[in-house]
Amino acid sequence: PQLHNTQPVEFNHAINYVNKIKNRFQNQPEIYKSFLEILHTYQKEQRNMKESQGNYTPKLTEQEVYAEVARLFKNQEDLLAEFGQFLPDA
Amino acid sequence: SFDFTPVDSAAVFVLSSMARQRRASQ
């Protein structure tokens, strides 16, 4: 039951964060697009791992996701710090 | 603004599931 109470918080946080990134990079849409691609790849790798029941090593670890996003968000430390709040094992 | 495209929604979905996973692992 506690989990159900916390889900909207996480969802709202994610909405606000995506909105913040969109606004920050509205003149550099390629950065936002790259960010979406990183997330998409991460999700795909997580799904592969889940479906293989642990017999698949993800090509993109949490550390690599963080490193890629750090490169993308250089000089935007607030965005990177906030991203760290989402990432498991960051 | 909150003018979200389906791609944006997908990003929100991934981020919120990451956050849930993070919470679950703590």
Describe this protein's structure.
Chain A is mostly helical and 90 residues long. Chain A is built from four helices and no strands. Chain A has helices at residues 2-24, 29-51, 62-72, 77-84. In chain A, helix 2 packs antiparallel against helix 3 (62-72). The longest helix of chain A is centred in the N-terminal third of the chain and has 23 residues, at 2-24. The radius of gyration of chain A is 14 Å and the shape is globular. The two termini of chain A are 26 Å apart. The mean pLDDT of chain A is 89. With 26 residues, chain B is mostly helical. Helix content of chain B is 77%, strand content 0%. At the A-B interface, helix 1 and helix 2 of A face helix 1 of B.
Question: What does this entry show, briefly?
Answer:
Chain A is mainly alpha-helical.
Which helices and strands occur, and which strands form pairs?
The complex is a heterodimer of chains A (90) and B (26).
Chain A (H helix, E strand, L loop, with lengths): L1 H23 L4 H23 L10 H11 L4 H8 L6
Helix pairs in contact in A: 2-3
Chain B lengths: L5 H20 L1
Task: Identify the quaternary structure here.
Answer: heterodimer
Mean pLDDT of chain B: 85
Task: Identify the biggest protein-protein contact and residues per side.
Answer: A-B, 24 and 20 residues
Shape of chain A: globular
Termini separation of chain A:
26 Å
